[in-house]
Amino acid sequence: MLKVSDINVYYGAIHALKGISFHVEEGEIVSLIGANGAGKTTTMQTISGLLRSRTGSITFRDTEISKTEPHKIVRMGLAQVPEGRRVFSTMTVQENLEMGAYILSGKKGATTAQDLEMVFDRFPRLKERRRQVAGTLSGGEQQMLAIGRALMSHPSMLLLDEPSMGLAPLLVQEIFDCIQQVNKGGTTILLVEQNAKMALSVSHRAYVLETGTIVLEGPAADLLANDQVKHAYLGA
């Protein structure tokens, strides 16, 4: 579904991504794990068109997208939930969700009202707070809203960037339960996450990034049991 081949990304003279390659099959949850500064968010932003790779290619559903504008990538069915959630803090929950559907304006089959109900069914707490200003929600509720907003664009694939950041352990579990539900509903997921144990526990496969390079890859269960991963990322 997604194939990233030999991408190199720079911030000025800083070589942030060093020829990384990986793929995501339809229906999978695939994780990118690694320490701060490893290049995880840079990878996500390059896939979604916010950054450009100097070399290589990014293919989504057999279409090359490495030079495609971000809004066109969303229209193709690839949506990102950004690090830090980035909800529109002065708008209500429902207005935030409607903004997620904005990209579908005029598109055949766009049904905002039905999509709202779909999101509210998945996140009942958002329905209770649909008229509440998003900036007053808890961190966990804002993360649910950010995921719900992305789902409003009818994505076939979600890029989730650090969904557990800043959340209490109970809320982290709730968010990861939501991620699994979204995946079971048919949405493919690429997950960037510092909480390696949680990420690997819900993923089918994973890649380990270190200073812009993929150093390990394989089935998530194998990486959970890997001594190198245990020592570096699982506190074991």
Helix content range of the residues, please?
A: 25-40%
How does the major sheet shape up? 6 strands, mixed
Look at the helices and sheets and give the structural class.
Answer: alpha/beta
Secondary structure tally, helices: 10
Main-sheet strand order equals: 6-7-8-3-9-10
- What's the SSE pattern? EEEHEEHEHHHHEHEHEEHH
Mean of all residue-level pLDDT scores = 89
Number of strands: 10
User: What is the global morphology?
Assistant: globular
CA(first)-CA(last) distance: 34 Å
Strand content is 25-35%
- C-alpha-based Rg, rounded: 17 Å
Unreliable segments (pLDDT under 50, ≥5 consecutive)? none
Summary, kept brief:
The protein is an alpha/beta fold.
Question: Overview of this structure, please?
Answer:
36% of the residues lie in helices and 26% in strands. With 236 residues, it is of the alpha/beta class. The strands form two sheets. A six-stranded mixed beta sheet has the order 6-7-8-3-9-10, sandwiched between helices. A hairpin with a 2-residue loop joins strand 4 (55-60) and strand 5. Helix 3 (93-100) runs parallel beside helix 6 (139-151). The two termini are 34 Å apart.
